[in-house]
Specification:
By secondary structure, this protein is an alpha+beta fold. The chain contains nine helices and 21 strands.
């Protein structure tokens, strides 16, 4: 079986519609999971919502907002942390078109613009811009921001994130928190950047209880398939508690079509409640209808942590902080083989660096920065982009003991200037 992350890019518009093409554009390298199954993250898109369905959702937006909570009305308590909006209980039979109509105002499209250094045929290095797209779910609002849940692979490596709402208005977003291990992220849009007319059309999604899902139960998937805007597919729960290599959690399996661009979109029950975050599908010629979603109940603690982090903005490259280590990835395979935690192995500590002053030594394994899990050198570098030289950050490391075990320790590191 072959799974791999899948991103929609404009170059794919000339695709043969009889043969599904998967993978990032030629300009963007496929991301591979560390083991047997390559996974397609459904962060890239091309399903078009049927004209009638899409127009209907706009026409009835006012009516919908009378019965569903508007984003503008979902405000966090001024004291305490932001919370998810939860629905009630068991799913009941309902018309698919009505569920889609009510849910679409809470689903957004996300465009990720990034710039990467690429080696040319003649050996030179040049920068090249790349665009990919995915989906997101409006999950909460605090006093200044609208919070949107998506997959980590939809937003990673971004230089600019753009969110498009149901009325096709677009605004810039920033990272709130990411978890590459669980493939989840929360991004934030400033309320002041959202037009009043748009705020009247959007809504905060209600969370369901994925622990109550039954095999055979009807589900609906909504997302920005192949980048053409929101589209709706339906199917059943094929299985629960599925495991795939490269994922640190059990997944919901469904035969509802999960296409490139659906990553980060909503999997709904018959109450219109979010019971999963669409994330991957099996990609092979001999398999059909094997898509997967992260169960919302299993992820609630992670999501709550992400949505209550400080919103991050990138620091100019010349001002970014320097940790002072030589990193080596500890993959899942290596971790299992050698009994090591997954993270970034410290192969060398630079003399006089902040890492040395904080007590980080050769052989330690970095597993988190400021509470954000770190499972690769890329994830480490991504997080360091948000901190200036001279700032002090909390770094979680696993320290090796004499008996081959590791002890977790969090230290404060004052970042130096990048060398």
């Amino acid at each position: 079986m072959d799974n791999q992350y899948s991103y929609y890019t404009p170059e794919q518009d000339d695709m043969n519609y009889q043969t599904e093409r998967r993978g990032r554009s030629d300009r963007k390298k496929d991301k591979k999971v560390p083991t047997v199954i390559k996974v397609i993250g459904l962060g890239i898109i091309f399903g078009i919502v049927a004209s009638a369905s899409f127009q209907t959702s706009n026409i009835i937006a006012g009516k919908f907002l009378k019965t569903a909570p508007k984003a503008a009305e979902q405000k966090a308590d001024s004291v305490g942390s932001t919370q998810l909006t939860t629905g009630s209980g068991k799913a009941v039979a309902s018309d698919i078109s009505e569920i889609a109509k009510n849910a679409m105002p809470s689903v957004v499209s996300i465009t990720n613009m990034s710039v990467k250094q690429v080696q040319s045929f003649f050996g030179g290095i040049h920068e090249q811009e790349s665009e990919s797209a995915g989906s997101g779910i409006i999950i909460a609002q605090n006093e200044t921001e609208l919070l949107i849940l998506t997959n980590n692979h939809v937003v990673e490596g971004n230089d600019t994130l753009t969110v498009s709402f149901i009325d096709e208005e677009s605004v810039t977003a920033n990272i709130k928190g990411t978890d590459s291990v669980r493939d989840l992220a929360v991004i934030a849009v400033q309320l002041k950047d959202i037009k009043e007319s748009t705020r009247d059309k959007i809504a905060v999604a209600q969370m369901g209880d994925s622990t109550q899902l039954q095999v055979g139960e009807q589900v609906i998937a909504i997302g920005n398939a192949l980048g053409y805007g929101q589209s709706v597919t339906t199917g059943i729960v094929s299985a629960t508690q599925r495991t795939l290599d490269g994922f640190d959690s059990e997944l919901i399996q469904t035969d509802a079509a999960i296409n490139p661009g659906n990553s980060g979109g909503a999997l709904l029950n018959a109450n219109g409640e979010v019971i999963g975050v669409n994330t991957i599908k099996v990609a092979t010629d001999v398999v059909e209808g094997m898509g997967y979603a992260i169960p919302i109940s299993d992820a609630q603690d992670v999501i709550t942590n992400l949505m209550n982090q400080k919103t991050k903005t990138k620091v100019a490259e010349g001002m970014q902080g320097y940790l002072g280590i030589q990193p080596v990835d500890v993959s899942e395979d290596s971790a299992q083989m050698y009994g090591m935690p997954t993270g970034v192995y410290v192969s060398e500590v630079v003399s006089g660096s902040g890492a040395q002053a904080a007590g980080i030594t050769k052989g330690c394994i970095i597993t988190a920065i400021e509470g954000t899990p770190i499972n690769s050198t890329d994830a480490l570098r991504e997080q360091l982009q948000y901190y200036k030289a001279g700032e002090t950050i909390k770094v979680t490391v696993q320290v090796p003991k004499n008996n081959g075990e590791y002890k977790s320790k969090t230290v404060e590191v004052k970042l130096g200037k990048n060398r």
